[in-house]
Amino acid sequence: MKIGFASNDWSRSMVSRDQTPVMGGSGHIRIGQYILPLRKKGIDVAVGILAHNSMTGTFGIHAFDGSGDHFDCDVIVMQRYMHKQVLPDMKRAQDAGQIIINDVDDWYWGLSEKNAAFAASNPKLNPDENIEWYKTILQESDAIFASTPFLEKKLLDWNDNVWLHTNYVTTAQYKDVPPFESPNPHKLVVGWMGSTAHRSGDLEILKPYSAQITSFASFHHTGDIKIPNVPRFNREIGVSAGIVETSPFLPPYELQDGFLFQVGIVPLTNIPFNHAKSYIKGLEYAAAGIPFVCSYSPQYEELTSAHGIGLMVNDPSEYPEMLERFRDHDYLRDTSKDIRKKVKKFDIHVGAAHLYKKILKIHKNYWRHEKG
């Protein structure tokens, strides 16, 4: 069985050292980081963007590693393909015997208008590529992978073959991240890693409490992008630029270089779109030994309560008190060591084994049904 992974989440502005395209954060987490562990298990996989052979009707993978196009895949796992042409092409591929699985990691039907993805996927603004075509593609897929229980429940209304596959993290990538030392021994450095363009008013929930936080901490934003229409981190949280250090946006395989802070934050607005989100940012913080404070979401409630990773607030007003706990250097150090141990259960090698078993079972069930 050969598995083809096709993601539509690739950076439009960044290339790797060998000048090949770089996957976006979601593409990397849901697909890219699995490729090496799967290959080490001897599993035949290809990764790239979706291709279609008009002669055979089959899907293939256009790879960027020089291996060309792979039209010999038994299973295609695709992510974030919303173009109307995908639908007839997918049906032809299914008729040709390919199994089509769609991986879903965001509730696009609950996007905030503040999120840059809202306009890009809106049927009124983009009639050929949008969430309505995406919904039909998901309905007609042989199976769906959902990254959270929230998404699993929602997608079961559209397709009765939905599999929960939660997120994992490549812990080895972060094992050498050293403890960050604050330049001011009397102040913590509180950090956030991510793109301000793809939020739902999340950072703004800290505005009423930023003055309290800055009485004992400064901020760092990893992922700063200085272009028009992309909001600046300091303006989002309501502080002056002078107390926010910034570092550039990083490709997923270099995130370990971006932890230039002592404590992380995961502020989230209390909306369905965020209820669908996974705890991946918390897993990345934990793998790097960065304690964090997060807002409520179903997955963060699970991560903090069931696994003891992170501190969750029930209201944004609790952020200052929770963060100030880490002024105790012993508490900061002990928490860092503790979460690094606990996050190992979420390692990518564990996730790769689960992912392959699910694909294998879907493949077997499909052919059992076909023969039956």
Q: In the CATH hierarchy, what is the superfamily of the largest domain?
A: Glycogen Phosphorylase B
Average per-residue pLDDT, rounded, comes to 95
- H-E string: EEEHHEEEEHEHHEHEEHEHEEHHEHEHHH
- What's the Cα radius of gyration? 21 Å
CATH topology of the largest domain: Rossmann fold
How many helical elements? Answer: 14
Strand percentage = 15-25%
The general outline is globular
Unreliable sequence segments: none
Q: In CATH, what is the class of the largest domain?
A: Alpha Beta
Our count of domains comes out at 2
The tally of beta strands, per DSSP, is 16
> How far is it from the N-terminal to the C-terminal residue, by CA?
20 Å
**Helix proportion range:** 25-40%
Q: Architecture of the largest domain, according to CATH?
A: 3-Layer(aba) Sandwich
Tell me the structural class: alpha/beta
Characterize this entry briefly:
With 372 residues, the protein is an alpha/beta fold. It has helices spanning 25-30, 35-40, 86-95, 116-120, 131-140, 149-155, 210-214, 233-237, 272-275, 280-287, 298-307, 319-324, 329-342, 348-371, and strands spanning 2-7, 10-15, 21-23, 44-52, 59-63, 69-70, 75-79, 99-104, 143-146, 162-164, 188-193, 217-224, 244-248, 263-266, 292-294, 311-312.
